[in-house]
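Data deposition worksheet. Section B asks for the primary sequence of the deposited chain exactly as it was used as input, without tags or linkers unless they were present during the calculation. Section C holds the resulting structure in token form. Section D is free text for depositor observations; keep each observation to a single sentence. Incomplete worksheets are returned to the depositor.
Section A, Depositor: J.P.
Section B:
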Amino acid sequence: MADKDYYEILGLKKGASPDEIKKAFRKLAVKYHPDKNAGDKKAEDRFKEINEAYAVLSDPEKKSQYDQFGSAGFHQRYSQEDIFRNFNAGDIFREFNLGGSDDVFSRIFGMGGGYRQGGGRSMSRKGQDFEMELPVSFREAFSGGEKRVAFSREGRSEELSVKIPAGIESGGRLRLTGKGGAGIGGGANGDLYLNIVVREDPRYSREGADIHFPQQIPFSHACLGGSLDVETLDGAKRIKVPAGIQSGTRIRLKGLGFPQGGKGVRGDFYVVVQIKVPQTLSAQQQELVEKLGGEGL
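Section C:
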């Protein structure tokens, strides 16, 4: 499933409302339900991916993670068991007198506990979820990588390595399954959510997936144009400055911004030109500037 689009599976566009998601699932799940397609392996496979897509897009937390990190990034954080935990489509199936019990899902998905039809009660309960703030540098957010995280759980200190996805933004969340409070009555442990805070950089700023970099140039360079070396997060790049450029003009370096969506797409890098005005002049410089002023410059 890691290379499939859940929205596409349900015939939707990204940004679909909860009602649109439920309506699309209802229509497709009834059409491809095993009770209506006995012995049809293709229909069974379609039913499986429809339910997986709905299990993610109907859950606000899972949907948020999927939208932010894309399919590949999402599946690095969620196993199939995680996806179907607390998933309940029983009401929809009961409307059409169709089966939706654990035996159907156990046969199709190879698991019995992930799906709950919602008819019975269980004394077990998932443990409490914990949250903590995780600061990352501007460059760590750009490049991604591994980061050691120390936390306390059940009175004990723990430390582990966490994968930071390239392109993550402040407000993003990483989920550490089972690292929250202990489960009750045999229930699963809670999870630990890491709330990302990206530190500011003294040289670069970020707007969405784009990077902005202020670059001062001399007045003569602004008038005459020329080449300029700029230090991007991908290394030094040479750009052309057109003659007569104005202060505040942005020069775009396509595809050198932050990764986004986990699909190899990147934002852009903008060089924001600032014309440098010297605070002091030598006698020769002042004479030359006065001559330029006399020529209307």
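Section D:
The first strand starts at residue 130 and ends at 136.
The chain has a mean pLDDT of 84.
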